[in-house]
Amino acid sequence: MPFRGGTKGGSDNPHPPARSELHVGDAVWIIEKEHYGTKNYTQGIVKQILTPGASHTRGIKVRLMDGSVGRVQWKM
């Protein structure tokens, strides 16, 4: 079960990791769309990388093992 909470930073990461830095199985913190601009991040393991491009200003979109979908803010 992912950890959900406000323990990571004060706002969305201005420099999220690029797609080339992410791999299936990585532990990450994501921000789900409904939580943009908040401290409500979700911790989990990458199951699938959804963004086709090399980068995205808000972060690369991924699906976690628990089914959550969001943009990667930090790798752990």
UniProtKB/TrEMBL annotation:
Start and end residues of each stretch annotated as Disordered: 1-21
Descriptive protein name: YwbE family protein
Chain ranges passing through the membrane: none
InterPro entries per the UniProt record, alphabetical: DUF2196 (IPR019240)
Top-rank lineage group of the source organism: Bacteria
